[in-house]
Amino acid sequence: MLDKILAERFIDKISEFTEYNVNIMNEKGIIIASKDKDRIGGFHEIAYKIINGEDDQIITEHEEHNYLGVKYGINMAIFYHHKKIGVIGMTGKPDEVAPILKIMRMSVETMLEYELYKEDIQHRKNLKEQFLNLILYGEDTDLFSLKYYASQLGYSETAVRIPILITTEGNVDTSQLLRKIKEGSLHTYEDISAVTREKQIIIFKCFDKGKILQGTYKYVIGEYLGNFLGFLLDRDIECHFYIGTFQNELEEYRKAYQQCCWLRDHVKAKSRGVYFYDYAGEYIHSLVPFMELHQIYHVFEELLDEKNQDDIVELVDALERNNYNLVDSSKELFIHKNTLVFRLNKLKVIFSINPLQKSNEREFLKYMCAYFKRKRNGF
Q1: CA atoms of 275 and 297, how far apart (whole Å)
Q2: Residue 20 above 90 pLDDT?
Q3: Greater pLDDT, 186 or 213
């Protein structure tokens, strides 16, 4: 527990300020650091007695020939979490060295706590990096490892979490931005967060199960990210938030993260916050094998020239985005409503359908346009 290098470093530092000889012994009573280098490695019987006995301090008035490796002075136990882990001793008249030694003991204990704290932080950081790498980039789902890391890091395995992928533009320090989020009062110890290889921020935000079915989850996320968004806007940092699907099983986190990435790569939304459940239909459409669409729609693709295909895709996409509201769709396309109606009537004639009245005919057009776009973009 008491590191030899740490002890030697302490002795080297205090040697500049005192002429007294100081020794530090480990839990076995071995001198691991001393101003008197010749004593290093020797056995200190008093230290061994303190470690294994009831006394926390032993004063030696003069050199004790009954004790091996002991000179006159004071030896005091070094504690870590109320447990004796070593001994610090100072040679000299007890009444002179006692106050100095107490300060030195406190200094060693404080230094030890700080060093072990840093080790714990680094250990946790390493564990968390391995945990996130397994979630985000692991080829195969290793549930045993996921549960091990979650347990070591103190994360609940069954808590409901929702992934939030945050992208920014420009030359920004995403690690610093993540620290800003974690400073927020609504960020909890159950929230799992990291910076991805693409220098984007991923957060698996822990959610109160009772709020999922109350229709308020978007509000809760907005409240969680509100101050951070204000921080970014104040600094003219452009950003987007891609919110995925609720999950309560660790092995599903990678898929949920990939769904956020799908939003990032395929959805061109006007708002900064993009929610997967608003685009679940489009995502499911994207999973349909291209050859299935080809088998269903390839004849239409051959009969319609490229200009007609482009016009149909533009019209149907606008109608879909505006829930087939003709006024809003015409505004988006920067055309008069009558022009939009004319184009829509043309569709009705070509395919003998009425998508304004029949949802299944809307689906027909949606999948056909998806086929046209995927064929144009190389599947």
Answers
A1: 30
A2: no
A3: 186
